[in-house]
Each structure stands twice: as structure tokens, then as C-alpha cells.
Amino acid sequence: MATVISNERLGDGVYHLVVEGGNGGAMGQFYMLRAWGAYPLLSRPLSIHQVNDSGVDFLYHVVGEGTEILAGLKPGDKLELEGPFGTGFPHVEGKVALVGGGIGIAPLYYCAQELPESDIYLGFSREPFRTEAFRPLAAELTVDVGGHILDSVDFTAYDHIFVCGPHPMLKAAQLKGIAAETAGKRPDVYLSLENRMACGIGACLVCSVSCKDGQRKACADGPVFLAGEVLFHD
Amino acid sequence: MINTTATIAGVHFKNPIVMASGTFGFGREYGKLYNVSLLGGISGKGLTLHAKAGNPGVRVYETASGMLNSVGLENPGVEAFLAKELPYWETLDTARIVNLGGNTLADYVLGAELIQRDADARLLRGKPAVDMIELNISCPNVKEGGIAFGVKTPAALEVVRAVRAATRLPLAVKLSPNAEDIAEMAEMCEAEGADAVSLINTISGMKIDVRRRRSVFNNLYAGLSGPAIKPVALRMVHQVSKRVSIPVIGMGGITSATDIIEFIMAGATVIQVGTYNFMNLRAGSTLVEELQQFMAEENISSLDEIRGIV
User: Fold this and answer.
1) Catalytic positions (chain B) (predicted)?
2) Of A194, B32, B196, B222, which has the maximum CB count within 10 A?
3) Is the pLDDT of residue B87 over 70?
């Protein structure tokens, strides 16, 4: 059992949840959260926003019944945390860009703490959030509202690019990685995928991802994959 | 001393709590969270002769007290299972059940033969790591095979007969609630030499995305599981157990010790836990403890006292 320290509304449907409890974790890993009984049936996977002294922080967007319940949590409320699960972003050397779209910025804050001097690109379709928290951690911070954040990123200028955001953005990042390679640069582009999950530990195969070498599990083999490995069907 | 043991075709279950196919992988992942040898048994992820990629698109959708899945039997195939997973199963002290599916009759038979050959080879070196085959003729999420065999009794019997001839391992047949007549199907399975029947598999269901005006699933329909189906499952276990003399393995929406007791009272010999594994990753160890506690509170010293009493 973990305890809610704070659950602050940052903007339209976006919340920052700080809990006491959990077992730390690496950048890009996630926890399965549950703050209810039998319904909704499934726990909700949320990526680690940061590891604090006594627990873990999460940044989430209210999209359905589960996150709606999470949004109602008050300091002192209890919730179940299972994790950390998944294979996160690697610790890398060289010039790094962290690129987040919308709620996809959530895991990148921890990356920014672990990889100081990264260039950080944050894109929002409407109201931006948490951008000022990123500023002191960034070599350079670029914020875009209403456009396409990937347009601001020169993929040939980095050794490693970490991307998290909606599916079309991940697919676009994959194409930009290929284009950079064609131009003679070879950035390692890592994508953090958000898939529906049931167990979160690799047993149910609900979150299967089509990859060049066959089916992989977003929860256990990922959620972070090298962009070149993933086959996007739509 | 509370006795929770059960036996099916010579296979010993230390308790009636078996993890259901498709929800437990091959046990490894949950094995990192608790000692899975506490369990009565494990039914592994459904296998087909050859590896299967499963269904594209959305694979899970929550419903009121239930869940629709359209995984489509993604699995590594029988041979990869025997090579990569059985060494882990050898380390477990629980009943190990292979769940076997197929696209064609020949697939079922070849799969069963491979498992039998492996069991024979292991018997020479020590002991087999497979205690039972659970024949899946009831997966609603694959276009060929699967439920096509499980709805029509003659088709089901052809598979059961052929697999029975291909293996000497204890054989349970997993039945579909979508069968035309599940009790008749169970009787016929018994007549064909099945050692047990497992029921129920998921109920065929649907979810429409009204904004996109289409089913959320590429295959249109998906399999409903979870607490929502428990009353249906319980009724079917009751009906079938009154009609057959072989053991019934009951499942469908079990999330508590009282749910287990209900299924045992309806006539089940052991039960399987599926969707609850997703609601509580430690479902197995939770239920083992709760069942002991409940039996102590209710002065039930053995499950035999209450089996089929309703």
C-alpha cells in the first residue's frame, strides 16, 4: 500500500500525483496503480515521472474511469502500487534530445534528471504544463503549443533521441530517424510506447507490439523500444 | 487440519486453485511476485502447433465487471514451449497443465504427439514436467479452429477422439459456453475418453466505438471474462457436473474464497482463476490463504464434504 502525499491539478485534466511508497525504479519504467476495489477491473499503468525521497511521482491525464478515480485522490488516501515494471530508457553518453508530446512528457522528467545537459523539447496541443519544472534541467528547452514539436528537432544533431507521445508522433519520429540515417547521421531513437495493458508483467499478451523480430511485449520488453525495431501498422 | 486436496485422473492438486490459461503465461512472471508452487496447478498459455502472432489492433476492453479480450492465441508454438518453458516447469511443485489449441484436426494431433513424446523422453530421465493436457476447443478469438470445434458437438468429438488416441496423458477438454448444448458436449467428451472437462471459456461478446461507428476489435467479437460471467459459469458447472461422472474443472469470474466454494458446491473438483490475476497480481497466493481461512471459519475440514452438495 502506498499513500498519497499530493495530487495537484496542473491544467485541463492533467494531474501530478506524489506518493509515498513503491520501490523506486529506472527512467522509462512504470507502475500499475489501483485505488479502487473490483471495478474498474484493471489497474492502470503510469510511467515514473520522478523518484522522490520516500516514493514515486506520476503525471497523468484523465482519459477514463480509472484516471478519473485517481484524480479524486486526496492526501492521505491509500492506493496499491505494483512495480516498477518494464524496460526503460538506457543510460547513454553523448548528446541527447528528450522529446515529449502532451502527457508523453511524463517519463522524460526523470530522464532529464538522470541525463543532465540534454536538450528538451516539449509539445502540447493546447495548454502546456510542467514546462518550468523542466527548465533548470535542460541545456536548452523548446516548448511548442499547437504545432508539431518534432519539427523543432534536428535529428542529425544528436547521438540519442528519447521520444514519448501519441502514436502518430512516435511513427513520425521513427521516420525522422530513418531520414537522419539517410543523411549520414545515426541517432539512436528510442520510443516509449503506450499500449493497453492487463497484467503489466508480460503474462497476458494484451499489449503485444509488432516488431521486426516478431511480437514483443510493451510491458516487459518495453515500453521503450529502439524506433527501428517497431512496425507501425496504422 | 484442513484438507484442500483434490485428484483428477491420478494428478494431485494440493489445493483446488489452478491458474487459468491465457492469464498466467507459463508462470514465470508471477513467479517473480510469489511462490507459484503454493498453487494447486497452472494451466499454461494456450499453445498451437506452430507459433502464432495473435490478433492485431485492440486486444482488451473493460466492461461492467468484466473484460473483453481478443489476444487471438498469441503463443510460441509447442516445440518452443517444450524447449524453453519446460525446464522452468520442472522446478515447480504444482500440477502443470498444457493448454493445447489448434487450427486443424491435424494440428491438435501433432501437438499432442509432440507433448507425449517429450513426456516419454523425460520419463526415462526422471519425471515428466507436464501432468495433464487441457484441450482448448473453445477459443472465440481465432478465425480457424478454436471455437469452430467447440460449438458443434460432432466437430468437438472428432478432435477429442483424435487427441485421446495421440496421448496417454490425462486429458481435460475445455468447453465453450457458446456450445449448442454444453451438458451434452460434456457427456460426449466423457464417452470419448476425456478425463475431465473444464468450463467455461470466455463468452463471445462485442464492444462498439460509437464515435468511430465500428467494433473496437478487428475481429468484431471478443471473449468476455471476469466477475460478469460468474453466474453463467456457475450454472453451467452445476448443470454439467450433474450429467457427467468425470471431474469438472470450474471457472468464470472467481475473485474470492466464497466464489471458489460456490463452484465446489456446484460440483467442481478444482477451479481456475483467470481475470482476477489482472485485478490482483498476487491473486493465487491471496486465494490460497483466504480459502484456508474461510474453511476454518465455516468448519469445513475437506472440500469433499461440500462438493456438489447443491
Assistant:
1) 139 (nucleophile)
2) B222
3) yes
Residue-level pLDDT at B153: 77
Kindly state whether B66 is in contact with chain A, defined as any CB-CB distance less than 8 angstroms: yes
Q: What domain range includes position A157?
A: 96-229
| pLDDT higher than 90, residue B62 | yes
Verify that A107 and A74 share a domain, yes or no.
Answer: no
The pLDDT of residue B179 is 87
Q: Decide if A202 and B64 are in contact by the 8 Å CB cutoff.
A: no
**A118/A139 same-domain check:** yes
Task: Give me the CATH code for the B6-305 domain, please.
Answer: 3.20.20.70
Asked if the structure places residue A104 within a domain, the reply is yes
pLDDT at B238: 98
Interface of B with A in 291-310 (CB under 8 A): none
**CB proximity under 8 Å: B 87-106 to A:** none
Contact criterion met (CB < 8 Å) for A203 and B74: no
- Could you tell me if A100 and A157 lie in one domain? yes
pLDDT (average), residues A24-44: 95
At B155, the pLDDT band (50, 70, 90 cuts) reads confident
A70 pLDDT tier (thresholds 50, 70, 90): very high
* pLDDT classification of B93: cutoffs 50, 70, 90: very high
Single out the residue of A5, A41, A224 nearest to residue B23, CA to CA: A41
Evaluate whether residue A181 is within a structural domain.
Answer: yes
* Residue A204's CATH number: 3.40.50.80
Residue of A nearest to B27 (CA): A203
Contact list, A205 vs chain B (CB under 8 Å): 45, 54, 59, 71, 74
Domain count, chain A: 2
Cite the annotated binding site of B for FMN by residue number: 21, 45-46, 99, 136, 174, 200, 226, 252-253, 274-275
